[in-house]
Design brief:
Elements: H1 2-16, H2 22-26, E1 79-84, E2 92-95, E3 101-104, E4 108-111, H3 117-131, E5 138-144, E6 148-156, E7 162-167, H4 174-180, E8 193-197, E9 207-211, H5 213-218, E10 233-236
C-alpha cells in the first residue's frame, strides 16, 4: 500500500509540473547584437573607387627655379630638353636638324634656329593652345651647344674640295680655309678666288667678293683677307694655260 501511494504522488507531481520539451528549447532566441558590431557593408567606401592608389604619381617640374634663356640663339646641332608640364612626362631630348628645324611633339617640324629658348617655347605654346591644349606650359632649355658654328664650302682648284666646319669663336678666313682644304691645285688661278655669301648663287641679297690670294698668302697682306660666315662658298677657278 505504501509503495502504491509513493508512485501515485510522483505521477501527480509530474502531471502538475511537466518537464520542458525539446521544442521549447528551440524557441529560445538569442539577444540581438550590440551596437558595437560593424556590418561588412558599412566598412566599404560609399563613394567611387580610387584607381592606382599604389602608383607613384609623376611630379611635374617646378617653375620656381626655371628662368627661360632669352640671350643665346639656338643653332643647328644644338641639343635641347623640352617638356610640356600638362603631359606629366619627363623632359625629352631633341636636336636641331641641319634644316634648322625641331621635331616638336604634336605640331611636327618647327623652325628653331636663330631663336632663343624663350622665343621657341612661346611659339610652341601658341601652336599647342591653338589646337591641342586649353593651356600649355612649355619648358625648353639648352642641354649642349654645338661646338661648330656652321660650315663653309670650298671647291674648284684645291686639293680637297668639300665642306669645312667653323668652330665657335673661330675667325676662319678665306685664306685659312684654302689652306685647310689642302692648298691650291696645280692649275688654280690664285688671283681670282671668288667668295659668294648670302645663301647661294641666285639667292636675293647675295654678295660676291674677289680675292687675290697671291697678295694675302704669299705677300702677307692678311688685312685683305675676309672672315667667313656659315654657308659661305669659296670658288677657286682654273687659270688659262697658253701653249
Amino acid at each position: 500500500m505504501s509503495l502504491l501511494l509513493i508512485a501515485q504522488s510522483a505521477t501527480e507531481q509530474t502531471a502538475n509540473h511537466p518537464l520542458p520539451s525539446a521544442a521549447g528549447y528551440e524557441t529560445v532566441v538569442p539577444p540581438p547584437a550590440t551596437a558595437t558590431a560593424v556590418s561588412s557593408s558599412s566598412a566599404l567606401p560609399t563613394g567611387p573607387a580610387v584607381e592606382g592608389t599604389n602608383a607613384t604619381p609623376i611630379t611635374p617640374t617646378s617653375l620656381s627655379s626655371y628662368v627661360p634663356d632669352d640671350k643665346y640663339r639656338l643653332r643647328v646641332g644644338d641639343r635641347i630638353s623640352l617638356q610640356i608640364l600638362e603631359d606629366r612626362d619627363l623632359p625629352r631630348s631633341l636636336i636641331i636638324a641641319d634644316s634648322g628645324e625641331l621635331d616638336a611633339p604634336y605640331v611636327g617640324r618647327l623652325a628653331a634656329s636663330d631663336r632663343t629658348c624663350k622665343q621657341l617655347a612661346g611659339e610652341l605654346r601658341a601652336l599647342l593652345e591653338k589646337e591641342y591644349y586649353y593651356r600649355a606650359t612649355v619648358i625648353i632649355a639648352l642641354d649642349a651647344a654645338n661646338k661648330f658654328l656652321g660650315r663653309i664650302y670650298v671647291w674648284g682648284q684645291v686639293k680637297n674640295q668639300g665642306p669645312i666646319d667653323i668652330a665657335v669663336n673661330e675667325n676662319l678666313t678665306a685664306g685659312k680655309a684654302i689652306l685647310r682644304a689642302g692648298g691650291f691645285a696645280d692649275f688654280a688661278n690664285k688671283k681670282k678666288v671668288k667668295l659668294v655669301r648670302g645663301g647661294g648663287f641666285d639667292a636675293p641679297g647675295k654678295q660676291n667678293f674677289e680675292l687675290n690670294m697671291v697678295e694675302i698668302l704669299e705677300e702677307g697682306k692678311s688685312e685683305r683677307d675676309i672672315v667667313l660666315l656659315p654657308d659661305d662658298f669659296i670658288i677657286v677657278p682654273s687659270r688659262l694655260i697658253n701653249f
